[in-house]
């Protein structure tokens, strides 16, 4: 004997869990339509709409910022729903210095993925700024898990030092994925002896660096900084540096040997280089 039980439920009575699952599988246009169709659906579909935010123009960026700021004192501030923010394909206006960009990031406490691409970083503030000013607002995203900084091959790039990486991970404890087109500071004079004592960032499993400057001591640092690294990619196609002498290479090799736990969990490694880059310059 088979007994079938059917439960009839009005569309407006569907549980929020089911509505959220439906919303996750709809297009942006359909999510918006559903949010306007039924008052009982509004919360689930609005939340999904805000989950991924793209600001591809300066005007759209301003509108998003104004909307999030205006909702801060409401019962449900929209900023808490944003998990992914993509800012790309536009050159930030010099007038952006009048817009509290850092305030926007502070309104996104649950931001997990940040993509910065094709942006004129020099216009974020009134003057051309060094890396600390860029990292200042990135470091406010304490829940960030994925960070991408994309820059043109010949365009403006921020320069990062060991201290910048250390400060980044002090603030972003959950960061697991880093893809960055940056310049890596070449000078290790004052920091080389501190590398073995660097605080490991255990959460990072993927590192993808595209740099115009390369010093093999960076790989030495990454081995200490990221003990759980699974995937490592280095793009040094446009790098320019002096060839290492035999003695320099031997010294660096001895430094690598001093860390027997280096890259123990590495599963994939890829390097992109030009014909002038000698494999022996990697380490």
Structure, explained:
It holds the Pfam family F-box-like. This is F-box domain-containing protein. Helix 1 packs parallel to helix 3 and helix 2 packs antiparallel against helix 3. Helix 5 links the parallel strand 2 and strand 3. The chain is built from 9 helices and 10 strands. It folds into 2 domains: 37 residues, Monooxygenase (Up-down Bundle); 231 residues, Leucine-rich repeat, LRR (right-handed beta-alpha superhelix), CATH 3.80.10. The N and C termini lie far apart (73 Å). The radius of gyration is 23 Å and the shape is elongated. Helices cover 31% and strands 15% of the residues. The strands form 2 sheets. An 8-stranded parallel β-sheet has the order 1-2-3-4-6-8-9-10. By secondary structure, the chain is of the alpha/beta class.
Using brief descriptors, characterize the structure shown.
two-stranded parallel ribbon, 283 residues, eight-stranded parallel beta sheet, Leucine-rich repeat, LRR (right-handed beta-alpha superhelix), alpha/beta, 31% helix, Monooxygenase, 2 domains
In the CATH hierarchy, what is the class of the largest domain?
Alpha Beta
- Summarize the biggest pleated sheet: 8 strands, parallel
Helix content: 25-40%
Q: How would you classify the quaternary structure?
A: single chain
Number of domains: 2
Average pLDDT taken over every residue: 78
CATH topology of the largest domain: Leucine-rich repeat, LRR (right-handed beta-alpha superhelix)
Number of helical stretches of at least 4 residues: 9
Q: Low-confidence runs (pLDDT<50, min 5 residues)? A: 5-9, 91-95, 121-129
SSE pattern, N- to C-terminal: HHHEHEHEHEEHEEEHEHE
Widest β-sheet, arrangement of strands:
1-2-3-4-6-8-9-10
Would you identify the CATH architecture of the largest domain?
A: Alpha-Beta Horseshoe
The end-to-end distance, rounded to whole angstroms, is 73 Å
**Class by SSE composition:** alpha/beta
Strand tally = 10
